[in-house]
């Protein structure tokens, strides 16, 4: 994870003040994690506002183009003193007066190069008397003073890009990092080149800093680029405004943040429950039970589970087309195939056929979401032909008969989980089934965590924790009306739930969750009920 360079004071062309040098930054080099660095940087960033208001007035608290404060500081040394004051007030001075937070500068000296090769530190005030125009050597001496007096570790563009003798003179005099112009994707032709350039730089013994641009968007590609290249440094300026914060937030994986909030021990990648056959209210067919799912419990990683699930998912199309015709290959609300199957056992047989054809017999188990409340009758029975009205009642079962049907299914098929096999108030039937089968019944001793049915994110973390404390398992679940937001993928990993249900491996609102899970965290596998 890179050390972030937070822009706290803005000057140069990025701010409407007299400060010539462009960025005065802080680098939390002694933080132990990116999360801690972000906290330290944010704490220091919010302190200068009070200092500036007291010294320059309330109207001096505005920010520049990149989110740093832009008071009308007249002298560059004063900008550095503001940083030191903020760092000390935040309590990051460290042992023996050594700062835990170091300072970086982006001078952008080309902005104030004069025609005769000097540097005008009062270039924004026109006309001016030339009193602040320095020869290159004088500017070099100024930097050496700064490095001696302040904990500066990096200076970007201290001279014009063609003023090589001055660069060489400064580098031979100070033991800090001098940074050339930005390494930016928008200054390189292709993403491929934006990867090759840092690799070539590293091969030559150079360091690499991945950097933002002034006209930023909320795209966070550079955060991934910095981590993927192990650049060690990223500059995406002030920890404020969404176009900046999105990069920093990308550096603090959401699942890690949830892990910290929940106090989760070892992280676990969940076993996915892929919806292959749709029925119930989610499909325009006669199938009463809602979801017929596969769980790749014997995969060794989430990546392998996703591959296995995808392979099995694509097989039923050929089976269905051959058996029911081409028009039976449409899908339901959640992406599962929705042929006009008349019998729930037939739905299970379709799954078994697909699993066998994919070569995963014994490696993939079956799960069901019955949604039995959908077909509860007024007299407490269950109508397995509820979508056909009127009907003769031939498929209406008493609760015990439905319980016996489930027991047959469990005996005949590799079923490991049944969700909502009875109405939520039919407790006696739940108890009867649980005492008869050694499988997971959802929601009896297993919590289905559906975030949109809980008031806050905090509650969506507390509820699973309380369930686990009571000896229950946890399944993090999608909703029918899904979006491309992938929060539940991070929630499942951060809570180490062991199970996630985000249905068929098709359509973007489903695939985004699965793609988010393609990491290297250990896979729950057969221990999915109690990882």
Structure description:
This protein is of the alpha/beta class and 531 residues long. The chain has 2 domains: 3-181, Alpha-Beta Barrel (TIM Barrel); 271-527, Enolase-like C-terminal domain (TIM Barrel), CATH 3.20.20.120. Helices cover 35% and strands 14% of the residues. The protein has helices spanning 34-45, 48-56, 76-89, 136-149, 164-171, 191-203, 221-228, 242-250, 254-262, 302-313, 316-324, 344-358, 399-412, 427-434, 457-469, 487-495, 508-516; strands at residues 3-4, 6-10, 23-27, 102-106, 119-120, 133-134, 152-156, 177-179, 210-211, 233-235, 271-272, 274-278, 291-295, 365-369, 382-383, 396-397, 415-419, 440-442, 446-449, 473-477, 499-501. Helix 16 (487-495) links the parallel strand 20 and strand 21 (499-501). Helix 9 packs across helix 16 (487-495) and helix 10 (302-313) crosses helix 12 (344-358). The mean pLDDT is 88.
- Helical stretch tally: 17
Provide the low-confidence segments as ranges: none
Gap between N and C termini, in Å? 28 Å
Widest sheet: strand ordering: 2-3-4-7-8
Précis, in short:
This is phosphopyruvate hydratase. The protein is α/β, with parallel strands linked by helices.
List its traits.
Enolase; 2 domains; five-stranded mixed sheet; TIM Barrel; 531 residues
